[in-house]
Amino acid sequence: MIYMDNAATSWPKPHGVYKAVDKCMKKYGANPGRSGHKMAIEAGNIVLYTRENLGKLFNVSDPFQIIFTCNATDSLNLAIKGTLKEGDHVITTSMEHNSVVRPLKELEKAGVKITFVKANQEGIIDPEDIKKAIKSNTRLIISTHASNVTGTIMPIEHIGTIAKEYGISFLVDAAQTAGLLPIDLARLPIDMLAFPGHKSLLGPQGTGGLYIRDGLSLDPLRQGGTGSQSESLIQPIFMPDRYESGTINTPGIAGLGAGIDYILTKGQKDILIHERMLLQMFLDGLATIQGVTIYGPKDINRRAGVVSINIDEKDSSEMANLLDERYNIATRGGLHCAPLAHNTIGTLKQGTVRFSIGPFTTKREIKKCINAIYQLSR
Ligand SMILES: Cc1ncc(COP(=O)(O)O)c(C=O)c1O
User: Fold this and answer.
1) Do both 6 and 51 map to the same domain?
2) What domain count does the chain have?
3) Within this chain, do residues 43 and 190 fall inside the same structural domain, yes or no?
4) Are residues 252 and 288 in the same domain?
5) I need a surface site. Which of 57, 86, 274, 302 has the fewest CB within 10 A?
6) How many angstroms does the Cα of residue 300 sit away from the middle of ligand 1?
7) Are residues 299 and 176 in the same domain?
């Protein structure tokens, strides 16, 4: 199988990830932070190791500012619902995934007002449009770091600077970029960063996290056992226990730690260079095929490893099925859980066929994809 669905979840994972999950399950699969026996301590150590690895990758000096969640959706729900209250105003973009849009729509019922700032046809947002939308009750600005439909990288530094100037919290959805693009949280004006562990961070499914800037307090969505202050009937207020109730996904987190090890050892820059080389090759190949529409910016430096296309007026889900059945190529067709983004680029009806590159994608595979698209276009 030629796996071109890395934007949904990355596959394959580095060998070390499988090994770390297996070792955790077999050797010390106890509950971290609860009991005091050797296995529980080892489980606690691996969770700390992964948290520290995330701190290294995102340049966060206190790794306890990063909490573990199940996925990016879980992180976004906490960041959004833990911040916004009745009467608040929130600004976001027309390129967001439903994991931002749906929690907001739910809050709209409870009296939160939303402004969606519209991107252009390439999915690019003008930060000045965000500035113009600010009101006296704007509490939160949310932007995806890169669109999962067009790959467009958003000007998050510029947007964050505006948010900071007005004293508004800034939440970034790094689902398509964490592990791929450099994210320096000591430097960037970001208050909260939501990320999945299972995409470019190369960890297993069921892992994710949320960075919460020091001094920012959210209302937790869940209360329960944390292994700390067991005598208290009240949720602890300190990080990360305030937000990490219940047994966490220790095997998944062990695998995520190994995924980040791979990135740190291989070099994030080299992975990005590899993916961008393939991206350029793919875009150049597609540009020669008649009838193919490519969405998003032409400049590879302005996009993540996601390429959405259409072939004439052909149904995108049907094309994705043919790629799978005839050519053994795994892509995604239809709408990619981001109807506002599809509306922005004019593909709400047709959807798109989305190819997404990963660190283990090869030149040979890209050539085969171009060839398959050429044949389908005829
Ligand atoms: C931009 C974006 N945000 C959020 C998500 C949700 O991520 P998860 O599946 O980890 O909840 C995705 C998933 O594809 C995404 O692409």
Assistant:
1) no
2) 2
3) yes
4) no
5) 86
6) 21
7) no
Query: Which residue range is the domain that position 251 belongs to?
Result: 15-265
Based on the domain organization, do 95 and 158 belong to the same domain?
yes
Which ligand 1 atom minimizes the distance to the CA of 145? Answer: 1
Q: In this structure, what CATH number is given to the domain that contains residue 344? A: 3.90.1150.10
**144 C-beta closer than 6 A to ligand 1:** yes
For ligand 1, what atom is nearest to the CA of residue 197?
A: 10
pLDDT in tens, 302-348: 999 999 999 999 999 999 999 999 999 999 999 999 999 999 999 99
Question: What tens digit of pLDDT does each residue of 84-130 get?
Answer: 999 999 999 999 999 999 999 999 999 999 999 999 999 999 999 99
Span 245-301, pLDDT tens digits: 999 999 999 999 999 999 999 999 999 999 999 999 999 999 999 999 999 999 999
CA of 192 from ligand 1 middle (Å) equals 16
Q: Note the pLDDT of residue 113.
A: 98
Secondary structure string (H, E, C) spanning the chain? CEECECCCCCCCCCHHHHHHHHHHHHHCCCCCCCCCCHHHHHHHHHHHHHHHHHHHHHCCCCHHHEEEECCHHHHHHHHHHCCCCCCCEEEEECCCCHHHHHHHHHHHCCCCEEEEECCCCCCCCCHHHHHHHCCCCEEEEEEECECCCCCEECCHHHHHHHHHHCCCEEEEECCCCECCECCCCCCCCCCEEEEECCCCCCCCCCCEEEEECCCCCCCCCCCCCCCCCCCCCCCCCCCCCCCCCCCCCHHHHHHHHHHHHHHHHHCHHHHHHHHHHHHHHHHHHHHCCCCEEECCCCCHHHECCEEEEEECCCCHHHHHHHHHHHHCEECECCCCCCHHHHHHHCCCCCCCEEEECCCCCCHHHHHHHHHHHHHHHC
